[in-house]
Structures are given as structure tokens and as C-alpha cells.
Design brief:
Keywords: 2Fe-2S, Disulfide bond, Iron, Iron-sulfur, Metal-binding. The chain is α+β, with helices and mostly antiparallel strands. It is built from ten helices and 27 strands.
Amino acid sequence: MNPENNLSQNLPKYPESMWRDTTDLPSFPKLKGNHDTDVAVVGGGITGITTAYLLSKAGYKVTLLEAGVLLNGTTGFTTAKITAQHGMFYDELINHFGEENARLYYESNSQAMEWIISTAEELGLSCGMKREAAYLYSDADDDNTLKQLEQEFKAYEKLGIPGQWLDHIPLPLIVGGAIKLPGQARFHPLHYLQGLIQAFLDNGGVIYEHTVIAENVDKDGNLTLYTEKDQYQITCRHAVSASHFPFYDGGAMYFSRLYPERSYILAIEPESEFVGGMYLSASQPTRSLRAVEWEGKNLVLIGGETHKTGKGICTFGHYENLEKFAGHTLGIKSIPYRWSTQDLITLDRVPYIGRISEDEEIYIATGYKSWGMTSSTVAALMISDQIQRKDNPYTDLYDPTRFKANPSIKNFITMNAVVAKDLVGGKVEFVHRKPDELKPDEGAVVRHDGKRAGAYRDPEGKLHLVDTTCTHMGCEVEWNDGERSWDCPCHGSRFSYDGKVFEGPATTPLTTLDPEE
């Protein structure tokens, strides 16, 4: 391997999730009439599917509603580590929540991990489930992070978490130190969820795709949800918002209480053998590694380059940085896939899970801070218990109405509350502006069919909609009001309001969308 090679030549031209590319998912109709159900679950990711499965198994009539297609949000673009080792977190938890709550956090995520593993076994799911140790390490010569990691290990000891301190890790990296947590797991998340979807359907569950749920909810007796443009009504006893960013705010101002971050993943075929295990650097920039099997080959997922949404360097540059790390660490034969994802983080970094208020039968689950596999299952188990009026020991810990904050988080929210709602970028973004709000000769990023889209209403009033993914390297274009164009911040490609190429390097127009979808 020559480190002087132009590494970016190896990267796929377009981003694509390996999970989605290797899974044949069923399709479901759009809701085309009023509908009555016991529980309406809004959001077709791992949280919504798991919650729907649990409640259908308990005998409830459950309807799962997805704005786009199932598993095309964060769940379809994860690294899929099933672990209770959530980065450098337990020392912080003890300081802000106390030892008992920190212990409950570990217990809830460990139980969620075991539930996923046992459910896959119970349903006979072929999803590549494999037990592996998780490692959290500091880079060599990063003395400050090493001290924090040592404090983190002391937190493990206080909480009874069975971690082990190591001076070396199996990777060809020199580290300052590491914490090993045995008995964690990895899997193919969509193959697992394929099985849960089928089990949900077998239990009598109903699924609608391309069904966008509006923000307004009537609460006179039973709940009434509405599809976008108030076309149809969904009447239910309980509603669950499992849509990443809550579809219903209820005056809680979640746009100011959630911080969006983007991160990036490469699937590489390594030159040197990968010894197994799941790894995460505590030092910056973050680096994540885990193995995966693909077409008879052993690949490694290299993740990291986390940044605040809208504040990263050129998107392609993040992939190039991961490629350099992978090349120097393991060597690269090929890179079959690259993709990015987005996560939301709460004020105190503990997810918001549970009833939105004491007198409403609306439940939310959000803010998983990159640890969605176990957090989503914690949420599903909790919400299922709450709807069935069963006691759950974790209700107070995750209560969405709580408020715990430290000065750094409060300062962060002050700086970002205005923009947080609009900066949930990429394909999982929940933009709240709608195409029908645009005036003549006005363009903007909008929400269409549950996804980010670009909209321009020409002077005659005709609406033009485009997919905002640049056809050159997959960056997200932004509206240039002065030029009436969609401009790519990465490599300078520019497109007309209806997607035609203005300037290269792009040669393919933006994909146009049907305003009537």
C-alpha cells in the first residue's frame, strides 16, 4: 500500500447504505381513508417497529405509519453496535444524575441488548448476530483524554459494570489506555427488523408507508391524528412518536432541546486481517470500527467524523479522512459502500422516552446520541409497559418532562436553539416548512413526503420540487436566492431551480420529485 496514493479514487461515487442494499424489504400502501386503531405508531425505524411488535404481541390493534418507506432513516444508516458501552458517559451520568440513575441507565441498555439477542433467537432470524467485546480507547499522547478514561473506568467500578482496563488493544494502534466491556454484540439491523416486521404482520399489525402525519392532534376523548393536508383521520387510544424528531411537539419545544449531529461510515475490505471486537475512540476525531460479513468477504465498518449538522467540512472530505485512517490502520483493498447518518442529542444526553405529559396518551422516543440499537429497544419496552399500565423501573430516568443541565449544555443550547430545528440535514431531516407555504418566486428546503427536498414556486405559481442530493458526490445542495439556483457547497456544482446542471463538475441533473406524492 502506498500512502501517497490518491485515496479518494477508491471511494464510491454515490453514498449507499450496505444494510439497505443487502435487504429486500416489503412495500406497503399509502393510507387512503380514515382509520381506527388502538395504537398509532408514527415512524418506521427500529423504535417504531419494535414498539409495534411488542404491543401487537400483547393483543393490541396496532397501526404503523411511515412518512416515506420503512427503515430509510437513521436505522438504515447505523453502525449497528448492540452495546451498553455508550462512549465516555458513565462518569458524566454519575455527576449529573447520581449513582443510582447511572446504574439504571446501564441496566436498561444491557437488558435491551439481551432482549434483542433473545428475540432474534426466538424468531429464528438470520441476522448475523455475534457476541463481541466493545472497547473504548484513548489515543496515544492524549493525556487529557486518558485521564478522563481513567475516571470513566472508576465509574464502571462504582456501578458494578464488568469492564476491564487494558494498556493495549488488538488493533494495530498505539493507545494510551482502553476499557473493554465483554459480551456485547453486533448484527445486520435490517435483517433483524425484517423478521420483526413479519412477526408484527402475523400478529395482525397494519402498515402504511408514504403517509405523513401532521403536527395537529385532537384530544377530545380518543386521539385523532391527521395526515398531511388533513386528508384523512386516524383515531386511536394511544399514539407513539417514533419518528426521530417528534411529529408532535405539544408545546415542549423539542426543536430547542435536541442537538443534531452527522457522522460518516465506510465499509472497507481490509488488506490486513481484522481481529474482531467493536472499537470507539474517546479521543477526537472519533473513530469507530466493527466487522461485518458481505458476499463471502469480511469487511470492516469505519465510522466517525462527527460534527454538528450544517457545520462540517465538505461532506466528501469527511469520507476522505476516514479513508486515510482506514488505509493507515488496516490497508484497503476496496470500499464497497459509504454512507452518512444523523443523530439527535438531548440537553443532558439521556434520551427522552415516555409520555409527553401526565394527561396525554402520546408517547415519544428520541435523542439516542448515536446509540440507537439499545436505546430504541429501551424505548419500545418502556412505552409498551406504560401503555399496558405496567410498572417500569426506568420511567423517571427517561421522562421527557425532566430538566437536568450543566453550564456547558445550557450555553450550547442558547447558541443553537434558533437553528437546531432547521439543521437536521440529510435524508432523515425533519424540515417543518412545507411546499404550499412558498410564495411566488420563492425557494427553500422543505419537507415533502417525510423527507428533505428542494422547492421553488415560479412567478406563475407552479411548484418545482427536486431531491437535494448533489449528483456529483452526494452532498446536500442549498438554495441560492440571488441566483435562483441550487448550489453544492462541496465542489461548486450548481443547478437550476428545476434541477438542470448550471455548472460542473456534476453532469447529471438533480432528481425531480412529483409535488402530488
